[in-house]
Amino acid sequence: MVNWKQNLIVIWLSQFLSIMGFCFALPFMPYFIQKDLGVQDPQDLNFWVAVCSAATSGALAVFSPIWGLLGDRYGRRLMLIRANLAAAAVVALMGLVRSVEALALLRFLQGVFTGTVTAAQTMVAVGTPPHRSGLALGSLSSAVFCGGMAGSLLGGVVAEHFGYREAFFAGSGLLLLAGMLVLAGAREHVPSAAGAPSAPLAGARLGSAGLVAPILLLAVAVAFVRQFDAPFVPLLVQDINMTIEGASLWTGALQALGGFAGLLSGLAIAPLADRIAPARVAAVAALGAGLFLAPQAFATGFSALFIARFAMTFCAAALDPVFQIWLVKVTPPERRGAVFGWAATARSTGWLAASIAGGAVALAYGIRPLFLAGAFLFYAIVPVIAYVALRQKKRAPAPAPERSPASTPA
Length: 410
Fold this sequence. Notes:
This protein is mostly helical.
């Protein structure tokens, strides 16, 4: 018998290490592109920041459903190990690149072969009793933000004092350790039916019930809004700092504060979706995020920026786990690998569109207008959330009792 609580602890720790590894270097990529790869022109810099962000998102959009279907067939644990080990290799190679084009290619490969968050979410969603899904997915979300907090702080120190390449190598080591932890400590029962060819294909037909597809479309919009300004936050920090020297320390501190806000959000807001309609929680979170994103466009000092970013992240961070819980409520366990794969595609599609749109705004108007536009977009998705929730309420069938995975014989 698989112990879902033990699995949750192991996967939580692996995600903490994994995100910590990513955040050792990736938040400082705009500085790496400037100092180590020689891109100094502001227009070129904005362009390559957008390209590197879009490359990963585009690849994730295409390949996440494939990994999700393979997870349903061969096991989600295997997918999580694959994601961490592939990430360790790709991040290490990023520390060796000599051109921005090579970096963009590796960012694309990162999207093809990694996806640790989606793999972890799928394994937890499938192996957790339905009535504890909010607690489990909210806890897993806290691991992401804890890892981001620790990685950003330590990564900023390493990047500033030892170099950006060394930060990539350190991050690769942490990703390798995360993969080894899952290999040694996580367990999964894969029923024989999971290997049947018909299971993944049936799981891919998301529109049949009319419940999953609208949530996925809404996830595209939410991901677009959340990612719209994110790649350019380091450049806002550099603008306030008025020099690239020391900017990685400030960026690391800002990312760490956001991680702490996300941790609090995952523990305080996401579990509410077990008792309150997820759409209601999401709508309030989006309103709060928009309210605190707008002031960042006018920040001239780090105090104002840090306060506004903390409050915005606290609200926005609740959106992802709330939508995951929403998907769990309308998806049978044997189809969650496929559905979460398509959810990753939905998020990645939103990220890709956001990278392109945000890059276009930055090229045309500069960095600061991004934050005003982002605030407007948060407000704009509130009526969309309400509309999708109304459609779900009208079309939802009477709930049937779901057998807990813990009661299934191993």
